[in-house]
Amino acid sequence: MSSTSQPPIAQAMAVPYRPGNEGPEFCLITSLGRGDWIFPKGIIDPGENAVETALKEAREEAGLEGRIEGEPLGQYAYKKWGTSLEVTALLMRVTSVEDVWDESDLRRRVWHPAPSAQTALERPILRELLDAAVQRLEAT
Fold first, then answer.
1. What's the CA gap between 97 and 81, in Å, rounded?
2. Potential cystine with 57: which of 5, 40, 71, 118 (Cβ 3.0-4.6 Å)?
3. Structurally, what CATH architecture does the domain formed by 8-139 represent?
4. Which contacts qualify for 110-118: CB closer than 8 Å, 24 or more apart?
5. In this predicted model, what pLDDT tens digit does every residue of 81-134 receive, in sequence order?
6. What is the 3-state secondary structure (H, E, C) of the chain?
Protein backbone atom coordinates (compact mmCIF):
# COMPACT_ATOMS: atom_id res chain seq x y z
CA MET A 1 0.00 0.00 0.00
CA SER A 2 1.47 3.39 -0.94
CA SER A 3 1.51 6.32 1.45
CA THR A 4 -0.85 8.25 -0.84
CA SER A 5 -3.71 5.87 -0.02
CA GLN A 6 -3.42 6.48 3.72
CA PRO A 7 -5.56 9.23 5.25
CA PRO A 8 -3.60 12.39 6.07
CA ILE A 9 -2.30 12.85 9.59
CA ALA A 10 -4.31 15.62 11.29
CA GLN A 11 -2.47 18.51 12.88
CA ALA A 12 -3.58 21.70 14.60
CA MET A 13 -1.85 25.07 14.62
CA ALA A 14 -2.32 28.05 16.90
CA VAL A 15 -1.97 31.54 15.43
CA PRO A 16 -1.35 33.33 18.75
CA TYR A 17 -2.00 37.04 19.20
CA ARG A 18 -2.29 39.62 21.95
CA PRO A 19 -3.56 43.20 21.83
CA GLY A 20 -0.78 45.73 21.34
CA ASN A 21 -0.53 49.52 21.37
CA GLU A 22 -0.48 49.64 17.55
CA GLY A 23 -2.85 46.72 16.94
CA PRO A 24 -2.52 42.97 17.45
CA GLU A 25 0.91 41.40 17.96
CA PHE A 26 1.52 37.84 16.80
CA CYS A 27 3.79 35.28 18.43
CA LEU A 28 6.22 33.41 16.20
CA ILE A 29 8.57 30.61 17.22
CA THR A 30 11.53 29.00 15.50
CA SER A 31 11.15 25.62 13.85
CA LEU A 32 13.35 22.82 15.17
CA GLY A 33 14.84 21.96 11.79
CA ARG A 34 15.78 25.09 9.89
CA GLY A 35 15.11 27.65 12.59
CA ASP A 36 12.68 29.62 10.42
CA TRP A 37 9.76 31.49 11.97
CA ILE A 38 6.51 29.54 12.28
CA PHE A 39 3.39 29.23 14.46
CA PRO A 40 3.08 26.43 17.06
CA LYS A 41 1.57 23.22 15.66
CA GLY A 42 1.47 19.49 16.26
CA ILE A 43 -0.28 16.21 15.61
CA ILE A 44 -3.79 15.78 17.01
CA ASP A 45 -3.42 12.83 19.36
CA PRO A 46 -6.19 10.23 19.79
CA GLY A 47 -8.86 11.60 22.13
CA GLU A 48 -7.96 15.24 21.39
CA ASN A 49 -9.57 17.70 19.03
CA ALA A 50 -7.99 20.55 17.05
CA VAL A 51 -8.72 23.15 19.73
CA GLU A 52 -7.13 21.07 22.51
CA THR A 53 -4.07 20.32 20.37
CA ALA A 54 -3.57 23.93 19.27
CA LEU A 55 -3.67 25.11 22.90
CA LYS A 56 -1.34 22.29 24.01
CA GLU A 57 1.20 23.02 21.27
CA ALA A 58 1.16 26.75 22.05
CA ARG A 59 1.85 25.93 25.69
CA GLU A 60 4.62 23.38 24.99
CA GLU A 61 6.34 25.12 22.06
CA ALA A 62 5.87 28.79 22.99
CA GLY A 63 4.89 29.00 26.68
CA LEU A 64 1.52 30.56 25.87
CA GLU A 65 -1.84 30.15 27.56
CA GLY A 66 -5.07 31.43 26.11
CA ARG A 67 -8.26 30.56 24.28
CA ILE A 68 -9.24 29.75 20.72
CA GLU A 69 -11.48 32.33 19.08
CA GLY A 70 -14.01 31.44 16.39
CA GLU A 71 -13.92 28.96 13.56
CA PRO A 72 -10.66 27.79 11.95
CA LEU A 73 -8.73 30.39 9.96
CA GLY A 74 -8.03 27.80 7.29
CA GLN A 75 -6.51 24.45 6.45
CA TYR A 76 -3.58 23.29 4.35
CA ALA A 77 -1.85 20.05 3.50
CA TYR A 78 1.83 19.19 3.08
CA LYS A 79 4.05 16.15 2.86
CA LYS A 80 6.55 15.07 5.52
CA TRP A 81 7.85 11.74 6.81
CA GLY A 82 6.74 10.12 3.53
CA THR A 83 3.07 10.84 4.19
CA SER A 84 0.50 13.64 3.95
CA LEU A 85 -0.42 15.92 6.84
CA GLU A 86 -3.42 18.24 7.07
CA VAL A 87 -3.22 21.27 9.32
CA THR A 88 -6.15 23.18 10.81
CA ALA A 89 -5.13 26.71 11.87
CA LEU A 90 -6.94 28.37 14.76
CA LEU A 91 -6.80 31.93 16.08
CA MET A 92 -5.62 32.02 19.71
CA ARG A 93 -5.96 35.01 22.02
CA VAL A 94 -3.05 34.82 24.47
CA THR A 95 -3.89 35.49 28.12
CA SER A 96 -0.52 34.67 29.74
CA VAL A 97 3.08 34.13 28.69
CA GLU A 98 5.53 31.94 30.60
CA ASP A 99 9.20 32.93 30.93
CA VAL A 100 10.28 29.27 30.83
CA TRP A 101 8.34 26.55 29.01
CA ASP A 102 8.76 22.94 27.84
CA GLU A 103 10.70 23.82 24.67
CA SER A 104 12.29 27.12 25.74
CA ASP A 105 15.75 25.55 25.40
CA LEU A 106 14.93 24.44 21.81
CA ARG A 107 13.07 27.41 20.31
CA ARG A 108 13.12 31.18 20.26
CA ARG A 109 9.91 33.18 20.62
CA VAL A 110 9.19 36.69 19.34
CA TRP A 111 6.21 39.04 19.17
CA HIS A 112 5.59 41.08 16.01
CA PRO A 113 2.89 43.42 14.78
CA ALA A 114 1.31 42.02 11.61
CA PRO A 115 3.54 43.83 9.05
CA SER A 116 6.82 42.60 10.56
CA ALA A 117 5.35 39.13 11.22
CA GLN A 118 4.55 38.99 7.49
CA THR A 119 8.20 39.76 6.72
CA ALA A 120 9.51 37.18 9.22
CA LEU A 121 7.31 34.33 7.96
CA GLU A 122 8.96 32.65 4.96
CA ARG A 123 6.24 30.14 4.10
CA PRO A 124 3.48 31.62 1.90
CA ILE A 125 0.73 29.57 3.60
CA LEU A 126 1.70 30.99 7.00
CA ARG A 127 1.53 34.52 5.59
CA GLU A 128 -1.94 33.72 4.20
CA LEU A 129 -3.09 32.47 7.61
CA LEU A 130 -1.69 35.61 9.26
CA ASP A 131 -3.67 37.70 6.74
CA ALA A 132 -6.81 35.74 7.63
CA ALA A 133 -6.18 36.39 11.33
CA VAL A 134 -5.69 40.13 10.76
CA GLN A 135 -8.86 40.34 8.66
CA ARG A 136 -10.86 38.52 11.35
CA LEU A 137 -9.51 40.77 14.11
CA GLU A 138 -10.24 43.93 12.07
CA ALA A 139 -13.83 42.77 11.57
CA THR A 140 -14.50 42.53 15.33
1. 32
2. 40
3. Alpha-Beta Complex (3.90)
4. 110/27, 110/28, 110/29, 110/37, 111/18, 111/20, 111/25, 111/26, 111/27, 111/28, 112/25, 112/26, 112/28, 113/20, 113/22, 113/23, 113/24, 113/25, 113/26, 114/23, 114/24, 114/26, 117/26, 117/28
5. 889 999 999 999 999 999 999 999 999 999 999 999 999 999 999 999 999 999
6. CCHHHCCCEEEEEEEEEECCCCCCEEEEEECCCCCCEECCEEECCCCCCHHHHHHHHHHHHHCEEEEEEEEEEEEEEEEECCEEEEEEEEEEEEEEECCCCCCCCCCCEEEEEHHHHHHHECCHHHHHHHHHHHHHHHHC
The ranges assigned to domains in the chain are 8-139
Distance CA 111, CA 37 (A): 11
Q: Give me the phi and psi of 83, to 5 degrees please.
A: -145, 175
